[in-house]
Amino acid sequence: MRCTVFGTGYLGATHAACMAELGHEVMGVDVDPSKISKLEVGEVPFYEPGLQDMLQRNVDSGRLSFSTSYEEAVGFADLHFIAVGTPQRRGEYAADLTQLLSVVDRLAPLLTEPAVLVGKSTVPVGTAEMIAERARKLAPVGGALEIAWSPEFLREGFAVQDTLTPDRLVIGLASGLSGRAEDLLRKVYQKLIDEEVPIIITDLATAELSKSAANAFLATKISFINAISEICEPAGANVSDLANILGLDPRIGRSFLTSGLGFGGGCLPKDIRALMARAGELGASEALHSLREVDSINMRRRTKMVELARHACGGSVLGARLAVLGAAFKARSDDVRDSPALSVAGQLQLEGAAVSIFDPQAMDNARRVFPTLNYATNSFEACERADAVLVLTEWSEFKDLDPSELATTVRSRVVLDGRQCLEQARWEDAGWRYLAMGLPTINR
Ligand code: UDX
């Protein structure tokens, strides 16, 4: 089969490469010529484990190509995926649909033959209907243009695995259409369907809302355990043991119950805000009041981490040398969008600390956002003469650090585990003072 993918960010580039890996001929399209010129030669412009080799292999085989030309894309296929970003609007909670509308407005007038547009981006419920109407008005082919929504649930760091072995496939369809959209999507996903990936065919609104609801639930789980963490401290309880106890109940499950600095990145924070904004527009704002709390618990984690750093430095970080390990919003990613690690590092610097930071993948992106931090070339260098070491992203290379070796370079053996990712006993045995949110206050 042939298809195009509009938008070659981490969602679009991964989707295009994975569709080619499934055996289809795929063209990725983007308005950014610098992205396209990298992708054309098989180079992924961001860090995503496993994607580079797969993309290169499919470009080399000729199954995967890239272009900035909409005309070329329309001549190439009649199944078009849209995978552009839907970031938070500046100064508002709602999603910014500019990129999505721009794809539709440029693509639709070129459609002279029956075609299917499939949205993959996370959008406010109702967007697909709006896009369908807009596109049909602009397209010479009119009613022979079908719209479907097939949201993507991939996580950064596991994008390839999540696309090729997803938990489920969701296809949202408009009522009263020819069935062509469903046929094409079943064909393009055939290999996954053969592998018994559950497939749910539903209406457009349910498909769109399922993605927002899934992210809202995940965010709620994280903020729930972080709220409990706030109680653990004064109560003398340990949030990590507590999460393990809760997690053994199959109705609850252990995943997304790791307490720490909270969620960041390009999805969960903006998606819960966009969902609240959309609920308000639909006259159902009361239904999602809890998400406001989820958001504020989450943002409070960053403040609490800074408080913990002050506490570790005797009340103020002014003049302290602090090592920050981690800049990406999570491990296995170079993404620093709304990164809790970077926001804490920035606040500590504002309060007068000399911050030396290291991240295995996100250094370039972090430097662009926060050029004034001191960027070290490795963890050891970041920790040189540090008054405290803060681990703020859960990279496995930080978990594997040797506390005895690191002890030889720091000024004080104080480690703040912002992600509950270090083995407390190992650090304490090597003479470190181990601090983390959600531990009994008495241990500090
Ligand atoms: C998320 C959803 O998981 C994915 O399904 C959706 O398609 C896009 O949004 P992603 O943003 O890549 O994916 O990251 P995710 O793995 O969900 O982590 C989000 C944030 O939550 C990270 O900052 C992570 O460190 C944090 N997190 C995660 C916790 O603080 N505790 C946890 O237990 C899990």
From TrEMBL:
This is UDP-glucose 6-dehydrogenase. It holds the Pfam family UDPG_MGDP_dh_C. SMART domains: UDPG_MGDP_dh_C. It catalyses: UDP-alpha-D-glucose + 2 NAD(+) + H2O = UDP-alpha-D-glucuronate + 2 NADH + 3 H(+). Residues 323-424 form the UDP-glucose/GDP-mannose dehydrogenase C-terminal domain. Keywords: NAD, Oxidoreductase. Belongs to the UDP-glucose/GDP-mannose dehydrogenase family. It comes from Rhodococcus rhodochrous J3. Pathway: Nucleotide-sugar biosynthesis; UDP-alpha-D-glucuronate biosynthesis; UDP-alpha-D-glucuronate from UDP-alpha-D-glucose: step 1/1. Its EC number is 1.1.1.22. The keyword Cytoplasm does not apply. It comes from the Bacteria.
